[in-house]
């Protein structure tokens, strides 16, 4: 494995009300990669990023970023990282150029260095023509690019991106993907938290699946897809028939049916291929249900995500890295 640039060991973070956002989480990120963090809302992804970026202190465990203990030497870590949070942290009344130059100055660059660095970044993110317009006139995708550009002003070794394309139109999202890929190609380590499965599949060379503050599984996208087994069967049914469909499909041999809320489908592993399909259709028919659409396909990252994060948290133990891979 490549040299590690991030090492988290046994991180624990609990908030008021007994909410345990991180529950002994450990992971290791190789230098120069795009490392994806996947998990449902409340899984602990943002808490993890905030601890690694020194914005939050862990209650227990250690985190090292670029070889530096983030808890003991936060200022040294901040000199080596960039962070783009869930919402664009830009000043609407400054121009795009002024926002990035300001970030460069805060990173400690001289006025001349900040101007030069800003010009380089604006060209690389395709905003040179709009650079001298106030950010309040920018589209959502342009605002996200300026936010990302500001986080690059100090040439960080590690860039943390917390759901960077939320609310961004598909075309702008693809543009941001290309920019992230270029950064990784130039040697920057990118830690990407996202709920877009396609985004993680496109960009990340390794992915950690987090749920209930624990590491559920970790590996390459291909390794994670293999955990879903062979073929996958999806049957689209109206939302009001969901429970009836899940009940009807519960006895299907060797398969556990789950509901995919975004796609409105019942999903189950089809280890027997067409035989599983016939069995499922027969059982739905016996229950008086007819699927609106049927798909039998190889596992996707969506299937992995659904399988690994749709069950209750395991009581009293921590899942080991790679345990499910």
Please identify the top-level CATH class of the largest domain: Alpha Beta
Shape: globular
Helix and strand composition category: alpha/beta
Number of domains: 2
Largest beta sheet: what is the strand line-up?
Answer: 6-7-8-3-9-10
Secondary structure tally: strands: 14
Topology:
Layout: E1 4-15, E2 19-30, E3 34-38, H1 45-52, E4 60-65, E5 68-69, H2 74-78, E6 81-84, H3 96-106, H4 111-124, H5 140-151, E7 158-162, H6 170-185, E8 189-193, H7 197-203, E9 206-211, E10 214-219, H8 221-226, E11 231-236, H9 242-249, E12 258-260, E13 265-270, H10 274-286, E14 293-297, H11 301-309
Parallel strand pairs: 3-8, 3-9, 6-7, 7-8
Antiparallel strand pairs: 1-2, 1-4, 4-5, 9-10, 11-13, 11-14, 12-13
